[in-house]
Amino acid sequence: MATTPGSASSCVSWCCQVGSVFPLTGGTASPRSPRSPRSPKSPKSPKSPKSPRVPRSPRSPRPSNESEDVLSGAGPSPGSTTSCSTDDPNSKPAPKNCYRLIVAGSPRVGKSSLVARFLNNKFPDDHKPTIEEFYRKLYRIRGEVYQMDVLDTSGHDPFPALRRTSYLTGDLFVLVFSLDNRDSYEEVIRLRETILETHMAAWHAAGAKRQPHPPRVPMVIAGNKADIEPRAVMPAEAKAFVSNKECCEFVEVSAARNENVAQLFGILMDLAGLPLEMAPDHHRRLAPPADGSLPSSSAKKCTLSIKRRLSDACGVVTPNVRRPSLRTDLRILRDKTSSAGRGVGSSKHQDNHCAVQ
């Protein structure tokens, strides 16, 4: 009988040494509790979970995979940069060929409709109030690239200071009024005076760094909605107003019917001294590419197979372009007022003037 408990205790002690769970239920083994510290050696078995640390070795390949992912993810960006760098002569305009067109006027006179006709020859069916929209169009004309930024302004003027800055950065202007709205015509007259005063003030403020001659501000006053009767403003009145004005013309248009829209922009390009091919009907419209640049080789191939009236001119609207910041506008203004002529100045100023925003 005495040997039996001894054998049981020996079994319990053996189980404790092996690391079994039975010692938790055995109360008779309390005197052998000093051997229980040996059971903590069983936590060495948790060290076996340290063996999962061996899977950390696969983590070493993970960084390699991540590096591969980084390299593959970086692929498009060098691709875009290399495409831009190799195609600089074909996709980026020279600073002297960068211009900004400002379209201004009262609300609901058809400014955005004229811009849509100019860019894509489309007419929007519904009216959406414009806060401020910015577009960019690139041209290739006789082997040279031109850039035209279009700023479609709002009819409201919550921040006059910012609006004057936009006027200062503009190179050519389209002032739109509605022939059935007398107030919109009077607003156009006020806008013209504001634009001229703003440009002259900046020219005088430039001091010794200013251009030798006062700035020319090409602008066309567009009497829109010629298809609507009755009229509150007669075209003869608007023509008489611009008859004695320098660098200013009037055109009666209808954006809905696409009447005289191409003529409007043709007259504007002529006043600004720009190629006539920049008018909507005098160049071939291309679909925007994925990277937003002007196609080079494909454009040349297409031009060889299509007959055109004037030249091999083509144009494309750049997708997803963002409005330059106020700081960029101020830098452009500084370059304009400090240079002796458009496109003349340091190369640093030229790069800043036509940087892709």
If you had to describe this structure to a student in words, what would you say it looks like?
- With about 350 residues, the chain is an alpha/beta fold.
- Helix content is about 40%, strand content about 15%.
- The chain contains 14 helices and eight strands.
- The chain has helices at about 5-20, 45-50, 55-60, 60-75, 75-85, 90, 110-120, 160-170, 180-205, 235-240, 260-270, 295-305, 325-340, 345-355, and strands at about 100-105, 130-140, 145-155, 170-180, 220-225, 250, 285, 315.
- An eight-stranded mixed beta sheet has the order 6-5-4-1-3-2-8-7, sandwiched between helices.
- A hairpin with a 2-residue loop joins strand 2 and strand 3 (about 145-155).
- The N and C termini lie far apart (about 95 Å).
- The relative contact order is 0.12.
Properties at a glance:
single chain; 357 residues; alpha/beta; 8-stranded mixed beta sheet; 14 helices; 42% helix; disordered N terminus; nucleotide-binding; membrane; prenylation; GTP binding; GTP-binding protein Rhes
What's the short version?
InterPro entries: P-loop_NTPase, Small_GTP-bd, Small_GTPase, Small_GTPase_RasD. This protein is of the alpha/beta class and 357 residues long.
SSE string: HHHHHHEHEEHEHEHEHEHEHH
The overall strand count is 8
Poorly predicted ranges (pLDDT <50, ≥5 residues)? 1-6, 18-30, 60-89, 297-310, 340-353
Helix run count: 14
Give the radius of gyration: 37 Å
User: What is the average per-residue confidence, as pLDDT, rounded to a whole number?
Assistant: 73
Residues in β-strands, percent:
5-15%
> Span between N and C termini?
97 Å
**Strand order within the widest beta sheet:** 6-5-4-1-3-2-8-7
Assembly status: single chain
Shape label: globular
What class do helices, strands and sheet pairing give? alpha/beta
Largest sheet: 8 strands, mixed
Q: Percent of residues in helical segments?
A: 40-55%
